[in-house]
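ok so I'm stuck.
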Amino acid sequence: MAELDLLRERLQSLGSVVVAFSGGADSAFLAWVANDTLGRDRVLALTAVSPSLAGDERTDCAELAAEWGLRWCEVETDEMANAAYRQNDPERCYWCKDALLAVAGPVAHAEGATVVLGVNVDDLSDHRPGQRAAAERGASFPLVDAGFTKDDVRSWSRTLGLRTWDKPAAACLASRLPYGTTVSVEVLGRVERAERGLRALGFRDLRVRHYGDTARIEVPLDRLPDVVSARQDVVDVVRASGYRYVTLDLEGLRSGNLNH
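replied:
not stuck anymore, here's the structure
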């Protein structure tokens, strides 16, 4: 049986769901399939708003919900109030997801629904303590249950005509900070401004890693020459965001590489 059929069966077994909706390829695909399978009245897409969510991603969530006819709401999470989150040790993601489920849980209870996250099979092999926090609070991972890999999500998204099929991965802004660097609104804002400026220059898939006054830019290997060609513009937009030094990582973009 195709993964999509298995996913629909799993969603039907849950009955009603609240989808943790970040607008990324995985959560968007899950929200669309859930809405198509269960109907609008039994699916709520919920976007957690905090300083770690880039403004462009928040806007895209709203646009996707409107395009696809999703029931959608925003909730504010307060992970920044938690010193265990701000200290940014390897368990940071645990406290982020714990804060998400703390607000999503009551919403799901009111809906008579289960909170579902767009975790896929490939995510299980990375350091993702947030998955543990979500599971502890009763969330479900339908993509994992149906055997979806990252490539499966993108392939099925393309087949279904979803514009998110090739959307670059966009982890929370706090993931740009090495462990041990304190998470603050000021630092997250600096990273967000730098990445927004670089996207305006045409670099769609990127990360700006934060090292104090130094920004370390990661782009796919085939875009390294383009960064060098646009050197002055790149330096200008990154310095304008608050960095003194602008560096380019010659190893290229590696999602989640600060976990190693």
